[in-house]
Design brief:
Elements: H1 3-11, H2 20-34, H3 37-46, H4 52-74, E1 80-82, H5 86-104, H6 110-135, H7 137-142, H8 147-168, E2 172-174, E3 180-182, H9 190-207, H10 213-227, H11 251-256, H12 259-287, H13 300-317, E4 322-324, H14 328-333, H15 339-351, H16 356-360, H17 364-379, H18 390-405, H19 409-426, H20 435-450
């Protein structure tokens, strides 16, 4: 049996109505639509003090390993990488909070140590995920959450990312009655002008259905900024990967936070990752024709386990939670139906390990358009919410508004869960609830009562 026949047989390419060429093209397309994470993740985690060159290496390596497992083990055309929203939560919520706790305890290097403690929390969350995936608890919880909450969480995270993109691009600044306001100098300063201009460029390219629109906008904005000396150009093109953030987890520091605080942080990582992955895997499976007649996804256990392993590997390498990417839909639209698509993506991420100088020099105004556009893509899930039913619409709205307004994914989620259960119970619609859903709402309620403002 030749290589082509072996690949066709293992990945069931022909049986799923695809071809080897189609799978390769689909893999290239998926990579082009999500390669921006190689630029954006170092920018976001770098704000938290994580070495940027180490984040570049961790991002590429964790994406390559997790996506390869998804392709070879789960055999579906889905790619993984450090998750957007989750990295924002890591950098802008957890790390500052941990730094404050450590400083209050008299730790001299609290600021420098905080990101290492946060990585330890990601590792613990990944291990919990693995256990739950192996015991199928995760699948049971997945089947208990109503669609309204899944879609509203995705939309809320989208607005959260957009807010970060506006900030990174210099389009908003601190001040005003709400704490933020429009940067009145945005149209005369080079950074916000480039951010706004290339957001429009990305939108035009997407409207023209140009593959890799986000990647193109980042590359072009960076090149223009370097050429105009708005930001320093890269010191080189190719270099050996630097895993300067690998094995930096501070489990002892996590324990020093106290059981209640550490548990709350791990739980929040767990909740956010859980719903992000669940919604993504379900949506992609529907698009790829992998759902059965009952609306369930055969083999979802393997997909969820792969996601859990990716998170654990990512934490060890030095990055925030690794999750399945909705941008995989681009490859699915190109005809990708098997794990061979994912294998191609994994190979391309592996090559990304050796281009750290360029990636590390990418300015935040160049990555801001990607954050804004990804926010749009995630916010589209609003259209799938039943806004005619107040018991569905209000919890959804509270969740969507709560996440960006509190600058906290977890706080917005918790408010939405509590609102959903309360409204259903108060209107006598108990049959639309289930024990797991009620338990999740109660856990959030206890979380707010015991550690208020942890995510703020």
């Amino acid at each position: 049996m030749g290589l082509r026949e072996a690949l066709d047989s293992y990945f069931e390419v022909s049986r799923r109505g695809s071809t080897l060429r189609t799978e390769v093209v689909a893999g290239l397309t998926t990579f082009m639509t999500m390669a921006y994470i190689l630029f954006v993740n170092p920018a976001i985690l770098g704000d938290a003090g994580v070495p940027r060159d180490g984040v570049v290496a961790a991002t590429a390596a964790s994406a390559a390993i997790a996506t390869l497992i998804m392709g070879l083990y789960a055999r579906v055309p889905f790619a993984l990488a450090p998750g957007m929203g989750l990295n924002g939560y890591f950098a802008y919520s957890v790390v500052p909070f941990v730094a404050g706790i450590l400083a209050a305890k008299g730790v001299a290097d609290a600021g420098a140590r905080a990101w290492q403690v946060a990585l330890a929390a990601v590792l613990v969350e990944g291990l919990v995920f693995i256990v739950l995936s192996l015991t199928r608890v995760r699948e049971a919880v997945a089947n208990s959450i109503p669609p309204t909450l899944k879609f509203s969480i995705a939309a809320g995270i989208g607005l959260f990312l957009t807010l970060i993109g506006f900030e990174d691009g210099g389009l908003i600044s601190e001040g005003g009655p709400t704490g933020i306001s429009f940067n009145v100098h945005a149209l005369v300063q080079p950074e916000p002008l480039l951010a706004l201009g290339f957001t429009l460029v990305a939108g035009i390219l997407m409207a023209l259905r140009v593959p890799g629109a986000l990647l193109a906008s980042i590359v072009l904005a960076s090149a223009v900024g370097w050429a105009l000396h708005v930001s320093p150009p890269p010191s080189g093109v190719v270099s050996a990967p630097h895993f300067t953030a690998a094995l930096k987890l501070d489990l002892g520091g996590l324990a020093d936070l106290g059981l209640a605080t550490a548990t709350a942080i791990v739980f929040t990582f767990f909740m956010v990752d859980f719903f992000d992955t669940l919604g993504t895997v379900t949506g992609l499976s529907a698009a790829a024709g992998l759902m059965d007649e009952r609306g369930r996804v055969p083999g979802i256990g393997r997909m969820l386990l792969t996601d859990a392993i990716g998170t654990t590997v990512g934490a060890i390498l030095g990055t925030s939670t690794v999750t399945t990417y909705i941008e995989s839909a681009a490859g699915v639209e190109e005809g990708g139906r098997t794990g061979l698509t994912a294998v191609v993506v994994a190979i391309l991420f592996l090559l990304g390990l050796f281009f750290a100088p360029i990636l590390a020099a990418t300015p935040t105004y160049a990555t801001a358009p990607a954050l804004i556009i990804v926010g749009l893509l995630m916010a589209r899930s609003i259209s799938r919410i039943d806004l005619s039913d107040p018991t569905e619409a209000l919890p959804a709205f509270i969740t969507i508004a709560g996440i960006p307004f509190t600058f906290s994914i977890a706080d917005g989620m918790g408010l939405g869960f509590i609102t959903y259960v309360t409204l259903k119970a108060a209107t006598g619609r108990w049959r639309e609830l289930n024990p797991i859903l009620v338990a999740v709402a109660l856990i959030f309620l206890a979380y707010f009562a015991s550690i208020p403002g942890i995510m703020g």
